[in-house]
Amino acid sequence: MNSPSDSKITSRATIADVAERAGVSTATVSRVINQTGPVAEETAAQVWAAVSELKYQPNAAAKGLASRKTNTLGLLVREISTPFFTPLFRGIEAGTSEAGYSLLIHAIQKAASPAITPIHRPLGEHNTDGLLVFASSMGETDLVDLHKRDFPLVLLHQAPPDGLNIPYVTFENKSGARKLVDHLIEVHNYRRIAFLQGPEDQEDSYWRELGYREALEAHGIPFDPALVAVGGFEEKMAEISVGKWLAAGTRIDAIFAGDDESAVGTIIALQQAGKRVPEDIAVVGFDDVHFYRYMLPPLTTVRAPVEQAGREAARQLIQLIRTGQADPLTLLPTELVVRHSCGCSN
Fold it and tell me: Which end of the chain is more exposed for a tag (fewer CB within 10 A), N or C?
């Protein structure tokens, strides 16, 4: 007849069963299995022998709690509806899974405040080993709070608040915009070039507008505030802003729409008003979202390495988690892509 302890082999053994068989406390068993504290070599051998005899399998969730590791990364974003996010998510997922991590994504509502109390924080220390934070999806108060507790963070398209050494990944927005507007001026001799701003709280928009302004200044073209409106990196908002320009009779040679999504809304507004693109007004975007190259006319834009940015952000976060070190800034190059919407024959 089997002893009570032997009967544990035929049912699911617990950590208490292992402790009993090895003659140690459950805390000692936990330290051995999770490697969270020093244990004498002989004692550790007794524990592993008991684990083997009882065929004990630690509960994955309990082991994660004990080691304070989840093998999961978090991604916090403001929205996921635009085509821009498809390659971004693909890059992040690839970088995450290749390193053996899982990925949790939380999209906060636009109307919601980005400042979230720790108890209501959807992603953080309780369910991830580190966070990727997309532009404007977490308030400064929360960033400061997590950073003070040495929780690993990497920012996407957003510089850290002053005084915080948080790594971030972004594109060369200014130089890409400068090359784009230089092309409109130098190749096509456009002078009345309008610009659609992105969301006020997104740095991509700020740097693209700076590149736009620098190109105008370099070519002796005065900046005209009447040629700047809000597109919000959104199709509908861009359509409305362009419609207002047209209704006001604003003279425009070309429109730098801020991003590809806004460029679509721009072209819709122009075509609805009977304007031809590019014969009457040229249109250019930014990002090079894949299927906009098949528009009529095909969109001249700036190719931003969106997927690479996602993969690199994941890589930097994993490196930070494992070593405590990451590159302060990863600035990825952009490339001018010339198609027909600017007036070229490509």
Answer: N
Cis ω for the linkage preceding 278 (within 30 of 0):
yes
Residue type, 40: A
What's 72-168+306-330's CATH class? Answer: alpha beta
CA–chain centroid gap for 317, Å, is: 12
Q: Tokens 């957003």: give the residue.
A: 158
Distance CA 63, CA 61 (A): 5
Confidence of residue 67 (pLDDT cuts 50, 70, 90): low
CA 75 to chain centroid: 7
Residue 297 CB: number of other CB atoms within 10 A?
Answer: 19
Confidence bin at 80 (pLDDT 50/70/90):
confident
Residue 343 confidence (pLDDT)? 96
Angstrom distance (rounded) from CA 76 to CA 86: 15
Name the fold adopted by 173-305+336-342.
Rossmann fold (3.40.50)
